[in-house]
């Protein structure tokens, strides 16, 4: 049996753990087990299901410290970040427990027009394929609503961070975990007993999975990449704390976040002031080192190829006439892992790959603008439309520009996770995906409306209708 051997990206000689690769027969067996489990689970009242999920939240909660260390060692994310991710996943799970009974309750009408019930029926078996950058929360935003709604789930985490999320999934009911790369993912999303596919990841895998799910007529939700612009209107007024938050909005998780601030647009007249305050803030908050070292806020990137790709993007920027400004400070030796120096790049044109592509790493371009009128077109250029941010001393002015941006989520005066809300749906427009996570829409993603209707015309005392009539 093949085995995935996951190394610590901060100390690549250290093996953090191993998981067996699930072959096609194994995936089939997991889907069958889930297929046997979901009907009994769905038949239980939703109050019982959320009680079981709440209990699981308590069990995971008690293991947060240990799981955070495992997550830090397999993903290269700083320990405090990992603790935060697991806590946030539990906050979301409990939010689902609080809200699912209301949102998923059947709607019932019994009046002069007839008796109508709209049930929220689970799909059955949901196949989830998830990435490595936030493996626990990105699985939980699928698992929690799917399970609360009465589905069973087969989860295939990324082979680059399979360990902590497997432990979390093991605490939840009616969840099977399969392991491997694209072959295991393909076997899952094309399985005929999988009725819903939930995917978070990159463009190439997203296109293949959407096509595979489509070929089976399987419904899918796709959460894909982004190239978020952060726009500073001419009146922007940032405190030192704001600059620090902005720096981390790009460099948290070494820039490997779908909704990181990936392009910065600043009025030309304020470029020098911005650059100085930004680099000073980075010096204060951006501490690169081993994820388990207290005070470290940025670890390595996920793999050797990822480090090579980001360094090549920066080198390519320099050969186009850009200037690289190294940011932050390093603690400890960085030669044992996949560390990349966090970098601000100035002097680029709008066609530079660092501007047009999702860099998904610790390098960000700083771009000047002359008039506000040029902003929507420059921000909306390209196929991606996940998130964006607008920063202004005048909130109405920020909301005005936000309405002209092609993005699924626009943050005002912040960016990235600090701007999220459990009650707001999250997801992309254009090629950043479709379907939504979080909020009520994120719950409704895992049910289909199923109607039972007795028209008044044919109930006792009803007036009847001619056989070919349309309803009144
Ligand atoms: P990836 O697309 O390489 O892999 C994601 C998952 O898909 C992994 O589990 C992988 O094994 C699996 N996979 C890959 N090819 C497959 C195939 N052909 N069939 C079935 N499964 C397949 O992505 P990644 O490198 O793990 O994550 C980075 C990307 O994810 C970035 O583009 C990032 O922006 C995006 N992302 C999006 C969101 C969001 O909410 N929109 C959140 C986090 C990450």
Distance between the termini: 63 Å
Nearest-angstrom radius of gyration?
24 Å
Question: Approximately how much helix is present in the residues?
Answer: 25-40%
Total of helices: 15
- Structural category: alpha/beta
Q: What is the residue-mean pLDDT, rounded to a whole number?
A: 98
- Strands in their spatial order, largest beta sheet: 13-15-16-11-10-18-19
Ligand set: nicotinamide-adenine-dinucleotide
Shape field: globular
Count of distinct strands:
22
**In this structure, how is the largest beta sheet organized?**
7 strands, mixed
Low-confidence sequence ranges: none
Q: How big a fraction of the residues is strand?
A: 15-25%
Observed structural traits:
binds nicotinamide-adenine-dinucleotide, seven-stranded mixed beta sheet, six-stranded mixed beta sheet, alpha/beta, 472 residues, 39% helix, 23% strand, 22 strands, globular, single chain
Architecture overview:
The protein has 472 residues and is α/β, with parallel strands linked by helices. Helix content is 39%, strand content 23%. The protein has 15 helices and 22 strands. The strands form six sheets. The protein has a seven-stranded mixed β-sheet, sandwiched between helices. The chain has a six-stranded mixed β-sheet with strand order 7-6-5-8-9-21, with helices on both faces. Helix 1 (24-43) packs across helix 7 (182-189), helix 2 packs antiparallel against helix 4 and helix 4 packs parallel to helix 5 (135-148). The chain is globular.
């Amino acid at each position: 049996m093949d085995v995935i051997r996951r190394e610590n990206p901060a100390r690549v000689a250290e093996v953090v753990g191993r998981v067996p690769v699930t072959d096609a027969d194994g995936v089939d067996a997991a889907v069958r087990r889930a297929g046997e489990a979901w009907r009994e689970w769905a038949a239980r009242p939703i109050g019982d299901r959320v009680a079981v999920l709440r209990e699981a939240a308590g069990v995971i909660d008690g293991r947060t410290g240990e799981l955070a260390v495992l997550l830090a060692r397999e993903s290269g994310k700083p320990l405090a970040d990992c603790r935060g991710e697991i806590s946030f996943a539990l906050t979301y799970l409990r939010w689902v427990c609080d809200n699912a009974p209301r949102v998923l309750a059947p709607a019932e009408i019994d009046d002069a027009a007839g008796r109508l019930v709209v049930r929220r029926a689970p799909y059955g078996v949901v196949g989830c394929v998830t990435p490595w950058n936030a493996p626990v929360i990105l699985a939980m935003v699928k698992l929690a609503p799917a399970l609360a709604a009465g589905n069973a789930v087969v989860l295939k985490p990324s082979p680059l961070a399979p360990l902590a999320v497997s432990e979390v999934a093991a605490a939840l009911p009616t969840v099977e975990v399969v392991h491997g790369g694209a072959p295991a993912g393909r076997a899952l999303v094309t399985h005929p007993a999988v009725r819903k596919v939930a995917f978070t990841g990159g463009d190439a895998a997203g296109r293949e999975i959407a096509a595979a799910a489509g070929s089976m007529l399987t419904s899918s939700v796709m959460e894909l990449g982004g190239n978020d612009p952060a726009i500073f209107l001419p009146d922007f007024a940032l405190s030192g704390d704001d600059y620090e938050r902005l720096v981390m909005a790009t460099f948290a998780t070494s820039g490997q976040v779908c909704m990181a601030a990936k392009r910065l647009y600043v009025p030309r007249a304020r470029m020098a002031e911005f650059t100085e305050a930004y680099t000073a803030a980075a010096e204060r908050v951006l501490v690169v080192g081993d994820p388990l070292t207290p005070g470290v806020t940025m670890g390595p990137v996920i793999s050797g190829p990822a480090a090579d790709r980001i360094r090549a993007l920066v080198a390519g920027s320099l050969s186009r006439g850009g200037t690289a400004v190294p940011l932050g400070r390093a603690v400890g030796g960085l030669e044992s892992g996949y560390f990349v120096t966090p970098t601000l790049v100035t002097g680029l044109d709008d066609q530079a790959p660092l501007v047009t592509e999702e860099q998904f790493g610790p390098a960000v371009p700083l771009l000047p603008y002359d008039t506000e009128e040029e902003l929507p077109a420059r921000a909306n250029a390209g196929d991606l439309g996940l998130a964006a941010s607008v920063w202004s001393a005048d909130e109405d002015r920020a909301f005005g520009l936000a309405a002209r941006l092609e993005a699924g989520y626009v943050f005002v005066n912040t960016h990235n996770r600090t701007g999220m809300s459990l009650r707001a749906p999250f997801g992309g427009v254009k090629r950043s995906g479709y379907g939504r996570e979080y909020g009520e829409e994120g719950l409704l993603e895992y049910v289909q409306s199923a109607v039972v209707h007795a028209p008044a015309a044919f109930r006792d005392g009803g007036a009847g209708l001619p056989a070919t009539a349309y309803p009144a």
